[in-house]
């Protein structure tokens, strides 16, 4: 059973930027016999509501100074927050200096996160939105959580009022919850400031000794990857609304954890092309990719690659979905469609598929750079996202690829970086015809890609090319490629046995290009 102790609120310090619920809180506190002490703006709000309030300056005997930068930073405030009444020496010192304890502090901070998203400010203007006193108040009250209730979120006012009226007093559980929340709040606040100023001042330190990533919860999800896992969606705080996390959801069922992962995978693929492009994603891997003269044509070609796997998949476009494309999409059971926009006619057609989720994600919203963060036991791995420089292509075989093959090789290389390793992509023109993903052996990946190609029954002809995300450790992959009719290969190179693979390609009259860049995706 949670231990409970008697606690009466004699003095409460209220200093909030967000005035939501503060009048009701102050009113109930005064009804319960508490003295309410406040700073300028909050005090004015309470007086307008005819609530008796004492200004902080009356407590400290010192006015607000330096344009309000110094209001509460005074021993009579912080002594009242940090003093431990159960310690005789603390009690004696407080009495000697005329310091009375506080039992409740309600503080929220200057809206730094909001102003950087809505206002264009100079450095001097922006820095005035960095809260000093409020952060100090929250941390001090949280440090003395056994004696001071610290409330940083208006959503908690109700539960606080409920417990301070409980004859048994305020539970330890609530005190601890509020203290932890206060520390998280100030840590998040400082992380937003640090992150924004780092970008604003162009401080080039990608991997600092101490790293913080401020996150704000957008919503709780139904479950995680599996129904027994809980999950939530967070947005990186203090950054522009961009990416899949900020996509406008036009219709459909609630977006699931897996839907978000697959939509992100789809978006990353199509953003790699300038021509109208479409990708169909299943379990975080593309199962069909194509470009065309229109989104509808790109979709039809992408679907040809693996129509079986496309069932229940996620579709991504880098162009607006028009009427013709919507008509094609409506023929298939899909989970999500993500695109820069949807024409009114397309929305009307897809409205009939009530469970289909439509995500509108404007193109072109990218940051200068971002980090890929992975959780491992006991810590995190951080790396650059896989945005390599343009590869220096090196033809290493006797035969030079034709212009048609070069076009297909470029396309396949753009796709293979988005396929789980070991990855093999077979393509013709600007269309995938077989994809082998996530195998422990690269030879198995090419065999799976070949099976997919044969199942699709596509007339590939003599234009079949292959891309590999990493080098070939042995010549067997080239030999297998020759069996299925591959005419040209693009791969990173760099194996100790590169000469064997080159020799095999020459024997089979296959053109091969080295990029010098690997694209592992684990």
Summarize the structure.
37% of the residues lie in helices and 20% in strands.
Portion of residues in beta strands equals 15-25%
Largest sheet: 6 strands, mixed
Structural class: alpha/beta
Per DSSP E runs of 2 or more residues, the count of β-strands stands at 23
Write out the strand line-up for the largest beta sheet, numbering strands in chain order: 10-15-14-13-11-12
Number of helices: 19
| Through-space gap between termini | 46 Å
Which geometry do the CA atoms define? elongated
CATH homologous superfamily placement of the largest domain: Methylglyoxal synthase-like domain
Query: Rg, please?
Result: 31 Å
The CATH architecture of the largest domain is 3-Layer(aba) Sandwich
What is the residue-mean pLDDT, rounded to a whole number?
90
CATH topology of the largest domain: Rossmann fold
Low-confidence stretches: 1-7
Number of domains: 3
Percent of residues in helices comes to 25-40%
* CATH uppermost class of the largest domain: Alpha Beta
């Amino acid at each position: 059973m949670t231990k409970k102790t008697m606690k009466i609120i004699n003095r409460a310090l209220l200093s909030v930027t967000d005035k939501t619920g503060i009048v009701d809180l102050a009113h109930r506190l005064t009804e319960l016999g508490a003295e309410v002490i406040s700073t300028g703006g909050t005090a004015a709000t309470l007086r307008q509501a005819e609530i008796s309030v004492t200004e902080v300056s009356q407590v400290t005997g010192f006015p607000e100074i330096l344009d309000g930068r110094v209001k509460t930073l005074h021993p009579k405030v912080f002594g009242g927050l940090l003093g431990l009444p159960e310690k005789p020496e603390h009690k004696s010192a407080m009495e000697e200096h005329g310091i009375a304890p506080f039992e409740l502090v309600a503080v929220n901070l200057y809206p730094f996160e909001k102003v950087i998203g809505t206002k264009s400010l100079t450095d001097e203007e922006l820095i005035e939105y960095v809260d000093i006193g409020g952060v100090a108040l929250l941390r001090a009250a949280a440090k003395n959580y056994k004696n001071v209730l610290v409330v940083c979120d208006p959503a908690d006012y109700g539960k606080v009022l409920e417990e301070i009226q409980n004859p048994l007093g305020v539970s330890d559980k609530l005190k601890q919850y509020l203290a932890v929340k206060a520390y998280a709040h100030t840590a998040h606040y400082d992380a937003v400031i640090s992150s924004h100023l780092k970008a604003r001042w162009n401080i080039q330190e990608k991997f600092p000794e101490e790293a913080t990533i401020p996150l704000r919860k957008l919503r709780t999800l139904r479950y995680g990857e599996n129904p027994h896992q809980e999950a939530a969606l967070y947005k990186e705080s203090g950054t522009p609304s961009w990416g899949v996390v900020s996509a406008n959801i036009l219709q459909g069922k609630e977006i699931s954890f897996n839907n978000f992962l697959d939509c992100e995978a789809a978006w990353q693929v199509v953003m790699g092309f300038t021509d109208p492009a479409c990708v169909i994603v299943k379990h975080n891997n593309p199962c069909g990719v194509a470009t065309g003269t229109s989104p509808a044509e790109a979709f039809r070609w992408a679907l040809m690659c693996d129509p079986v796997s496309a069932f229940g998949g996620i579709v991504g476009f880098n162009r607006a979905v028009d009427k013709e494309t919507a008509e094609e999409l409506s023929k298939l059971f899909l989970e999500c469609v993500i695109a820069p926009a949807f024409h009114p006619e397309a929305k009307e057609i897809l409205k009939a598929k009530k469970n289909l989720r439509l995500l509108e994600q404007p193109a072109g919203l990218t940051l200068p750079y971002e980090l890929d963060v992975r959780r491992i036991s006991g810590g995190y791995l951080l790396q650059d996202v896989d945005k390599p420089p343009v590869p220096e292509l090196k033809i290493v075989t006797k035969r030079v690829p034709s212009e048609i093959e070069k076009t297909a090789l470029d396309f396949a290389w753009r796709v293979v970086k988005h396929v789980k390793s070991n990855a093999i992509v077979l393509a013709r023109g600007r269309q995938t015809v077989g994809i082998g993903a996530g195998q422990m052996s690269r030879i198995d990946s090419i065999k799976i890609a070949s099976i997919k190609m044969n199942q699709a029954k596509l007339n590939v002809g003599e234009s079949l090319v292959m891309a590999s995300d990493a080098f070939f450790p042995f010549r067997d992959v080239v030999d297998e490629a020759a069996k299925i009719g591959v005419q040209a290969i693009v791969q990173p190179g760099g194996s100790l046995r590169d000469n064997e693979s080159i020799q095999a390609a020459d024997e089979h009259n296959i053109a091969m290009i080295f990029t010098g860049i690997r694209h592992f995706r684990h």
